Structures are given as C-alpha cells and as structure tokens.
C-alpha cells in the first residue's frame, strides 16, 4: 500500500470511526517505503528494502486507555483492531494523565515530500556505493558507508473530528574513509528530503581528503583550546541541549533549567546574546511535519532569543496543569549564524583546533548538561589562519551551555541531521585526555 | 506484521536519560502472550519448504528462522502506571548462499506460498549481489543436530504472571522510595520471550524458547533551595530468567562494603528502591572528589559495563576486520597483535572468557542463530589476547575450525550477524572478599552501579562514571563522593588490575539493549565478574557550574 493519498487515508480512518464504540478514539495511520545499502572494505555488505503500512488505534473509556495495531486493511481487520483496543482499554488501569482527544485543528501544508526520493531504485543505491568505493580505491583508501532512504505518509483522525495528513521523504548518507596504512580517517554526513540535492560523489571526496590530511597525526597536550566545531561536530551537543528543554522536568526541579529556590529559567539569559535558536516546519532547507503525533499543530517557535530562553516543550497534560498552551517538540532546530564560511573562520584563527565530528557522546551530569565524548575522523591544529597539521583525537568534557557562553564566532549554517547549525568557534573548550584511536 | 518504534524514557536518570527502547511488533492482548500459533511439527514442514526451494533454485546453503517475539514492558512513576505494552511479532526470515554470496528475505506470511516467495527473493538478491561481491562466503563446517530443543531454565514464566501483580510490585517499590525521601521515582519492567525455530541445509531443526527480564528504576531527590538534584539507579541486573528473579530471596543477597546489599540471582526491588532514596539524599551533601590517581575498587554491577566496552566490543571480529568502520568503529585489538601470541591485554591475573552457556545470563541459548551449539572459550588468558568472537563465515580468518556460536538477529526480519556473547572476568582463585579488598586499600574509591560511559571508536580511551562512589582511606570507607569519573586506556587499565575477589562475590551485570550494525539491531548480553581492584587510575572531577 505504501504511500496513500489523503483521501485513501481518510477512507481507512473513517472506517475506524464507524466501528468505534469507545468514549473516544484516536487513530494513526502511517506507511513507509524505503531501502538501504551498506558497504565496507570497499565492497557492498548488505542491502535491503522495507515497505510497511500500520494502523494504530487508541480507544479510551474514561481514563482507561489502550492501543492496538494492525497492518491489514480489509473491513474485518479494521474492525478487529478497533475491538481489540476497546477490550484492552476496559481492562487497563486508569491513566490519570490521559487527555481527551483534541478538536479539529488547522495545519500548514507540509513541504517535506519529494517524488524523486520516493523513486529511488536499487541501481541508484549501488551507484552511491560506487561513488565512494571507486575514488577511495584509486587513492589507497577503504570506504565504509551507509545510505538509507524512506518516503511515506502519516495521517490521523479522532472522535472529536480532527483529521491530519502529511507526506514526507528523507535520505541519510554517511561514509567513513580510512587510509590503508591505518593512520588516517575521514567522514562525512549528508541528509536531504529531495534526493536530487544529494551529491554523494562530492561528499565522498570530502571524506577522502580528510582521510589523507589526517594521516600521521601529532599528539598535543589536552587542555582548554579554542575550537572550530564543524556543523556535524556541534550538532550533537546542541541537540542534547535541545532535547532537554522539557518544561515538566524543569518544573519538577530535575533539569538544567530548574532554578535555585524553585521555578524555571524560562525568560532568563542563559547563553551568549548572539545565540538565536528557533524551529520552523516550513523552513525550505529543512522542512518537517506541521503536526505532532497527538494532533497538535507545529508552528514556528523561538527557543533562544539573544541568549534568553523563550520557550520550553509542554505536552498537553503538563500544559493543562500549568495553565499554558502546549508546545510540541519540533522536527529539528535552526541556529542562526553569520556569513563566514568555514575557510574564512579558519583564516581568522591564530591558534585553534578544527573538529570534524564528535563521537560517543554521553551525559555525565544532567544538572549542568555536562557531556563527554571524543573527536573523530579529522582533527587538525590551526596556526596563523591555516591548518598546520593533524592532531590525535581528544576526549572532551563540556557542557553546551558553557560552550555557548564561550562563543567567539559563528559561520554560515548548514543542514545536518535535520537541523541547521553554523560552524562554531568556541574558546576554552575542555579536552581532558588523548586518544590513540584513528 | 512489524512495527519499529522507540519509547524514549525521559527522566530515567543519567545513564538511561535518553534510552531508546526498540519495540518490535504489534500491540496484543496480554493473554495472547501465552498463545502458541504453530507447533514444532508444523514449523518443520514450513522450514523444509524454504530449504527445498532454496536448494532447487541454486543455493548452496540455506537457513530459515520462524520466530515469534513477545515483549511486555511496564512503566510507572510515583503512584501512577504510565504505560503497559504487550507486543507480538511473528514471521520467517530466510538466508541463503548462492554464487558465493549471502541473500536474505523475510515475510510475515508464514504459509507455504509466502515462504516460497521469500526464499526466491533471497536467492535472487544473493545472485544479484554476487556480481559485485569481492570476497566469496566461506563457512566453517557445523554438525547437523537433527531435531533438538532448548529452553531458558525458568521457574516462573513472566508472561504468565498477572500484570496487576507486576504493577503492584513496582508501585510498592515507588511508595517505599517516596516514604524514604525520594521526590520522584520512575520504574520500568521489561520482559522478553523469543520463540525461535531454526532449520538449515546442514540438517538441524532447532526449537528454542528464550526468556529475559529487566527491572530498573531511577530515584530522584531534589534540593529546591540550592536548585540541585541527584539520581540513583537500580542495582538490579537484566537476566536470562523468569519472574523468579523478582522474588528477592535472602540467599541471593550479599553484604557488601559500606552497608550495601548486592544481589546475585534474585532481586528485591522494594528493598533496593528504599535504600536508593536514602542514598540519593546522602549524595546531595556528599563531598566533591579531589581529582588525581586512585586505586579503584569496582563492584561487578559497575565493572560489567567496563568489560562490555573495553573487552567485549574490541574483540568482535567483524569490527576488527572493518565491517563496522562507518558506525561503531574498528578495534585496536588487531589481528597482528593477536598473532604475536604475547599481546598483553591485561595483567597476569586477567582471564576473560566468552560464554553462551552461563545459566541465568542474557546470552545463554542452546544454539545460535545459525545453528551452532553454544560453548565457552577464552578471549584473554593470563593477560594475553588469545581469541576473538567469530561466526561461521569468519572463523577461518582466525584459524578456527568451528564457529564460536555467537550469531544473532534481533527478530525474524533482521539478518543475523556476529553479536557479543557473554564476556566475563574469571574470579580470583584464593579466598578474598570485597570487605578484604577495602581493608587493603590506602587511597581509593569504591564504585558501584552503572553511570555515564564513553569510549573511542577503536576502544583505546574511555571514561566511566558510576551510580555510587565511596572514598576509601587507609582500609576504611570514609564517606560518599560526588562528581567522579575515571579515564584510562584499555590496555593500561587492564594491566593495572592487581586483585580479583573470589567466586563467592561473582555476579552478573547486563546490557539489555546493546546496539550494533546499520540498520541498528539490539541484543542482550551479560558480563560476570567479582569485585576487582585497579591501581593508580586517573580520576577527574566532573562538577561544573552553569
């Protein structure tokens, strides 16, 4: 069945509605068709395709709620899934945090589906592997990469008359290039909604160059350094901060946003005043869903403005407890930056370290958002505006909050992992030990 | 008939803060967890359909897995049940070798026609990929075992225990924690049952019934005036057991240093939650660690994760060979180091073994997912690297004549590949308890429970936190510490291992959702050890102000 049109989806969900006998119901229908290819040691290792359509029905009697799922769509199957969720709901314990379904909502038209991505073929996938493997082999380098793509739809309906529909497509590509002498490694990541905008050959070339440049790295002392974090290096720390912007944890006193004496840091200046972070499902460079899984419309939201925390995520239950409007979690974030290119930022740096990516990032202290992890696949010493030599990888212990207070410069934002992130120049970034890993 | 979803367990505390739990399958009524849709005879007939179809279409080898994967997950907080989930995933996966190349296909249509169709797809994929294959598959031999079966030795099937009994137990633990000063507690109980039927052209028909369980929680205490909070996670271990793990029988409790209670094969969640609340409160006023070199005394409930990351992963042969280079990474434990036969991974007392047979462990099965009988083998012997973890298509690379039997797929519609077996540190031979160990340390830190963990892509440099830290001065525990993490290099660390407690202190730690591969698959694995001492390890202070 794969990608159903709005009307086809509505027809199935209308049947759920006609079968439902519960006090309320909420039904989500989603389908995906996609595939992947994985390669390593300069040869293809696995490749596969997936095609799924699923109907999830949640029925409620008072505050007793249960969910049932099915992937068959004849009338008997649809009735079966509705009945099953109803039977289970009647047996379920009461959920005191259950919220009645939302009434009808108005949504912006989503912009994240591209036919080009829905039409990816096995031949295209094999060609992607070749765009990495052939140039790698020619340079005495070994490629290992992964391409994964999906195109699909999601729709929902509830007993209050709400109906939502969205189509989306995505492609994620990563490749690691390792020099055959074992001393150099480079990596690149790309993600797009429209596969016609993906150039895996040029991306592979970037990784090859990093692998060649990173050979024979020198060990320098760990300590506090000025760093330039490429967007792929900054994104994970920023995402971790973003994922922690939950109002309930902050109100409960167990968040970096909880305040001494009670309350939250909403409205307080937490980071450098040049930091502006927002989300916008209609942003042309990183479109995302215009509604959340429970039917809330997702609009443009400002999270940090001039360094001040402007919004926190409120689910419907917590918003009702606090008497505020719910703020759903968006599909990604956009951090505003400057106009400088990465090369220009390097040129403006007297001494510093260029970081390609960070790896194995784990929370050390949720109180201060302290994270640890390591640099990987291309770490370079910058001297007098130029990359002077590759350096061995470091372990860092750093908090994105401290990092965004030590902001020196921001470059032009780039899309990475469904977010827009500028390259960031940060002073006093804390490296605590050296790693021999390549 | 499959749903791939992730439950994000926000608020479960440091280590599990963003734990993504994969949920495979359709939601079902809990009573259906006990249904049995196909008997063994029917499965054998269907398996033969796949094997015969594969052979007659040019496959030189085929295996088929008819799998029913059941999950029950329960989540509570304070006095509320947040979610109960029951899922079933049922289908068949067929793997073939044709023209020297693997092909795999799966279907939830477990009928003669469905299986024939999927088998033809698997053969077609193998033949198509053969054109770009540079390394033809070469399997080491395996015995055909005929009709055999294996079952996790459980006393009480967790799926048969009423949900109300489980919920009451969790809410009781929550209530005791709250009475003892917790501000919040999040509890989770994970139960898994894999019903797997495997057959291959080697002549094996293997029926297995595998059970696993994991109770866990995070207690949070708040100091609102200071705007500070501390968390304490459960000191349980996920186990390859039934619900009997939850009965907290007294014979499974060990008195540990600092008045702590350690659990061996049975767990008392109410007791642990009670103690957790008291300890979390104590953390609010504990002193911050002075950075420097310390002798570390690592409890098995902590050391298991260090073994997992610094020994288990680097000795996966597919990592060593570069198949995981783009994701998890490669390994410092290269084949040339192994070939020297004298690469000192650790000190002379370090003996680390792999074992897929250890009773109660997460990795215990009778046969792996390519029909190889499981066994125990040495990885590190007297400190020297002696072996890796290898499956049928890798064993020849390390001069082995048989597979180690550690092939696994998370579900019927995922292809099986090499996964970590249980990897454990052998206990010391002479009688020596954790209490004895504390007495012998002048300047050390006793660490219990899992915490933050991070290691580089070749498994050299790591940093670990923990749940509880105690300062040890001149043979005595002098108080609790905060902000502790230790950093080391794998080889340096294992060579600083100076003493291991005896068998009576040996316990299992486990990882229930270990991820590997692209697309990622989870597997469950245990790590046994006794309390162990490492000398002169670098400890950093992780305290910050924002």
CATH class of the largest domain in chain B: Alpha Beta
Q: Helix segment count of chain A?
A: 10
What's the oligomerization state? heterodimer
Overall average residue pLDDT of chain A: 96
Q: What is the number of domains of chain B?
A: 2
CATH topology of the largest domain in chain B: PmbA/TldD fold
Q: How many domains, in number, for the residues of chain A?
A: 2
Portion in beta strands of chain B: 35-45%
Number of helices of chain B: 9
Task: State the CATH superfamily name of the largest domain in chain B.
Answer: PmbA/TldD superfamily
Number of strands of chain A: 19
Question: The CATH topology of the largest domain in chain A is what?
Answer: PmbA/TldD fold
Distance between the amino and carboxyl termini of chain B = 48 Å
- Fraction of residues in β-strands of chain A: 35-45%
Structural class of chain B: alpha+beta
Low-confidence spans of chain A: pLDDT under 50, at least 5 residues?
Answer: none
Nearest-integer average pLDDT of chain B: 93
Give the fraction of residues assigned to helices of chain A: 10-25%
Give the class-level CATH name of the largest domain in chain A: Alpha Beta
What's the CATH architecture name of the largest domain in chain B?
2-Layer Sandwich
Specify the CATH architecture of the largest domain in chain A: 2-Layer Sandwich
